[in-house]
């Protein structure tokens, strides 16, 4: 289900780079509600069909207007049992051709999702071990049939076997993935300027292998934030960078006042509002952080900028 929804996101977003988990969570809830309603009515549950998603990807027809019209005709045809009989009695060669066609598209879509992020050593182990574990199901069927009946829901198919291996490995390999580096601007290290951060950030870009496009965006936003913070700080500014190859967090800590930064990227309709104009040259040029968090305890202030890579 997650793979199907991720494929849908790829089709509808030319700038797609990683799965939107909030959107995926909403899709899974909708799928669960459909199955729940089907169970209450005593009919098969409803869920997103991988074969239909592959057809959408081939034709490029992903408009919701098409979905509503198809849903209308499905309601009408559900009152005609003989029409369902035509689909059930479809010739086997036609069904096999459709299966191979849709299966090939979904297979390639899965590979694209895997390769959409850098394949690190940890990712290679997760993909390799889960794939090999899944292949043992058809290779050693007698062994898995000899296991207790309660384990069949976990080891009864290649997909479930891959999930059982991949999820724990992914959780395990997430430990220790965050790397941190710190810089102190002002006081004995010189004035609090964006140029001082740029030299430090260039070293981290090479060490952490941050993509060039993301590095330009991050540096532009942080430079603008440093200039705003410098006018509100009563002393040195401590900058902490943290990255796990997927996200990069920049934390600015100092004593003083919080600058007037928004918590999210402003929409175009907000550009003319005075509260979003001050100190937003980077935002108005299309450069922004994915999330901004601000906090203050007395004069101790902290600004956290989250960038999704």
Descriptive notes:
This protein has 309 residues and is α+β, with helices and mostly antiparallel strands. The protein has 3 domains: 116 residues, no CATH class; 59 residues, no CATH class; 130 residues, Heat Shock Protein 90. The chain contains 13 helices and 5 strands. It has a 5-stranded antiparallel β-sheet, with helices on one face. About 7% of the residues have low confidence.
Element layout with pairings:
Elements: H1 2-12, H2 21-41, H3 50-59, H4 64-77, H5 81-88, H6 92-115, H7 121-139, H8 141-145, H9 152-155, H10 158-173, E1 179-185, H11 194-208, H12 212-230, E2 237-243, E3 247-255, H13 281-284, E4 291-297, E5 300-308
Antiparallel strand pairs: 1-2, 2-3, 3-5, 4-5
Helix pairs in contact: 1-6, 3-6, 7-10, 11-12
Highest-level CATH class of the largest domain? Alpha Beta
Structural class: alpha+beta
Number of domains: 3
Low-confidence region ranges: 266-286
Largest sheet: 5 strands, antiparallel
Give the CATH architecture of the largest domain.
Answer: 2-Layer Sandwich
Features:
single chain; 5 strands; alpha+beta; 5-stranded antiparallel β-sheet; Heat Shock Protein 90; 3 domains; 309 residues; elongated
